Amino acid sequence: MKRGALVIGLGGSGARVVARLRQKLALMSSPFESRVQFLAFDRHQPTGTTGRLPQTHAFLTHLNASRGESAQAQQTRSSVRTLLVEDLRQGESSQVLRSLGEAIEVLRQFDINRLDIFLVASTFGLTGSAWAVDIAHLARHLAAEMKPRVIGVFLTPETLQASISVTREHRLRHFVVLKELEAFQRERPWKQPYSLYPSSPVEGLPPALHQRPFDTLQILDCNAREIPGDTHAIPATADVIYYQLDAQVSAVLEEAAQYSPIQGNACFDTAGVYSVIHPSQYLLNQARYQLILEVLQTFFPVETDPLSGVPTHLVEPLALRPDSPYGKLNEWLKDVHRSGILQDIVQAAEVPAHQRGAQHERLNTRGLTAWKMILYQAEGAEHALPSGTEMPESLQPFREAHWNIFLRTLLERLTTPDPKMGTPGQYLERLLEASRRYTADLKEILNLWEKQGENAENETLREQIREAQQQWEARRRSFTGRLIPGHVQDAERQFLELKQRQVFYHQREVVVKTILEIAEKMRELLEKLNGFYQNLLQALIFHPDSVFNIARMELSGLKRELEKEKRIPSQELVIDEHFERHRVQTVKQAFLEEFPALVEHFLHSGVLRAELDNGEFSIPYPIERSSESETEEVDLSDPHLPPQALASHLNRMLGETFATWLLREQPGNTVLSFLSYISSRADQVAQRMAQKSEPLLRTISPVQNLRSFLFMPASSIPLESPYPLSLRGELREQIGDIYLIQTENPDELALFRVYHGIALDQMWTLEENEPRPLNPAELKPHILWIV
């Protein structure tokens, strides 16, 4: 038999319970989730501060309250029910019918043949108390082929008295609703149907009840604790429904109802629940965001606003003080001597501003041999070195060697950052500025040589060479030249001197222009890298939606959520704080050790593949398309990629990486391994669980008829683990027979109990809320059903 469930919240309280239940199922990765549907109906739409429906309430169907009574003070249960009936009369346009039909159709796809319908509301609110019977009747009718059981879960005014101002109107309505429910549910013959729509039937809906509207009615007052509803009543009610979603529990309770039918007025049930939880998902997310913050702080130390925590600026490290050797480019870039050009640029960066003129003069007076030494100083191009003073056949090997050295030197530095020396961006900016000055100086020198005529293409020099050559040839052919050989030798010497000067200018020009060409390519790549780095810095740190800010806000929210979870009386969190800190530090250390390889993986296909011809590079990152199984690549280095989009990709990348690494360190043991935080003795834990799972309804006398269920991780059941057996034995001693429910959830141990056969006059909530003196006229506006 395949069982499923439909959980319907009515009114504000019901919607909050459903939202909490969905959250619990999502966090627990529960097997129930695939066969459970959630709905909620309300007259008021929660909007929060954004004016939009909160994501936690995406399941909510909002019936426009303006179609009912316009004045809030005049609204009654009858007028609010009219709003629902009017919606139902719209047939295919009905919001309620459409929502219920869609949810039930989804359940049909799972071949559900036994459906539990949970209806959760408050007894004192207008919406839930007015719509409960109609929705129960409608849901039972629409899901008839799945043999539905309808379970009503109602919260009394005491559950929320610490959160809202409970008025006399609330108490009167609560009193009337309990009396009406008793009249519907008590032992009675159903030979005569009860008409729900006597004057105007709703098309397609049976006009009358032929059985009790609810198979089971569970009343919760949460022992009237002075605790806000979101901290106690809402989570406890969600847990009461959650444990009944289990197929074994559902079958046991159905069988119990068949063998122990309602007798007299004892037609109400209640429940008690207590769970011990190791919040693995919370802790995993908390560790993930903590890791992101710590790693970012390692590479990008930032000052934050003391009030908001928003990063304001990078911390300047001590290593960048003027008297520190670490503040120099030649300390940041290792082995720059492998490239004479890169070494020349780095040395130029160390020249103070007031000595720029002297530096320019040194470059201007540098000899050809010195320029050649700079060009030929390229590791990996030794095979192309010429013999003697001749120029090599091709300069391409030197171009490629300088370029590759530059790329690998940058990559080596970027993949092994030294936080003590500061962020890479500070050095990239200085290297970029140095390359700008260096290339500007080379251009000025080439222009100066051209103006001074010190270049091979100088027309005056070329004319002098032609004249000297002609004079030399004329003297060599003349009679005087044959008589006086010295005249020919003088002309030849003059010609050769001019020709050598032209060759000198040509070689110097070729060498310097080649150096300038390579330096320009270096500068262009540095421009792009620096732009990418600035965008990266915004995406990682300073943008409002940066990785740092998102992690900071998420971590703060998780800590608040955990603190809130710790205050819930119906559950107890067990956390090994020392292990969690150790796990974060272990993964952080492992990540820092593998960081060079990770960065090289992304930069290798980008920076190392940047060609000398164009200097283009990209850092591809694969992302999955939302609607398809295919992936596409996003270029993270794209200058047009907004910081917010880049931050989103980086956040996903870091989050997935850290989550994977953290899961490797996550222990495989179950929540039972953490019970020593409560007590190392099974009898004391059993006693605590029995006390904490007392009924969530105060009764005048103890309830004897009950069913108890122990939810325990299946992996902890084997005989070689004595603690589970001891705990089961101790619980049996204290509370009697108990059903063992083995679950696949390793993070939760829970005791859930259902108390049957409670009469209305046994409840303290009726006693406390009964109006005195009992004035029928005062109760009349609240009466909806006369049974």
Describe this protein with a few key phrases.
single chain; 787 residues; alpha/beta; six-stranded parallel beta sheet; five-stranded mixed beta sheet; 24 helices; 12% strand; elongated
Low-confidence stretches: 49-53, 68-72
Estimate the strand proportion. 5-15%
The value of Rg in angstroms is 41 Å
| Average pLDDT reading | 86
Strand order in space, largest sheet: 3-2-1-4-5-8
Basic shape: elongated
Helix tally? 24
Backbone structural class: alpha/beta
Report the end-to-end length measured between terminal Cα atoms. 36 Å
For the secondary structure, the number of strands is 17
Q: Major sheet: size, sense and barrel closure?
A: 6 strands, parallel
Q: State the helical fraction.
A: 40-55%
Structure, described:
By secondary structure, the chain is an alpha/beta fold. 50% of the residues lie in helices and 12% in strands. It contains 24 helices and 17 strands. A hairpin with a 6-residue loop joins β10 and β11. α8 crosses α20 and α13 runs antiparallel to α19.
